[in-house]
């Protein structure tokens, strides 16, 4: 029978959820002893009590806003000026532990990243808001992963934009009513395009929807008068209500070769919808010409 060596036991244990799991593992056999000492990062949130089980941690991961950060405090909400901090309540003394790097997984706004860019923080989920765009400009920083609500709404000086490769989602109405936006490069990292994202972008004539996108929201491309052709990627499973409605120049759409849910009035009347496998729900798309 094949068994795991101590190294692979450690790899498997990265997916444990509680400190009790790690403690119990070390009681299994000799190969499991000192498993927690092999970690140079914390695989689970820790407290001042449980960090002693991981004596060799160099990188601290914070998955939630209220995870213990061992005195390494920072602002997490530039709008409400909230401070992420930890205080030992019994004596109100902050006990700071030093780490080579602190990796923050919960969402923060870009000013937080900008404020701590010269320190040992690494932020994995960064939102760029409309206020951020007004303050820092139309060039989206490379660390941004989410374009926020109405971020570029009615931005009349925006004609083209390239989104950073870390962006995974485009928020509600984030490019809506940008009437001069004619070219946008969306990275393959994007998986969702929210409602009203490109609503009334009347100069947008061509757009490549990345292959990893799974959902396109309600009214997403509605009233994009110049949009003439759309190729829906194979991973898209849902097209929202009136998603392409009012796209008067849209003559044909290629639907993915898989099941796709298409909401009512998704396309303008007389739009030709191509699906060689015939897997699109014919009843929902009855307004358009199904081929």
TrEMBL record:
<dbReference type="InterPro" id="IPR053139">
    <property type="entry name" value="Surface_bspA-like"/>
</dbReference>
<protein>
    <recommendedName>
        <fullName>Leucine rich repeat containing protein BspA family protein</fullName>
    </recommendedName>
</protein>
<dbReference type="Pfam" id="PF13306">
    <property type="entry name" value="LRR_5"/>
</dbReference>
<dbReference type="InterPro" id="IPR032675">
    <property type="entry name" value="LRR_dom_sf"/>
</dbReference>
<dbReference type="InterPro" id="IPR026906">
    <property type="entry name" value="LRR_5"/>
</dbReference>
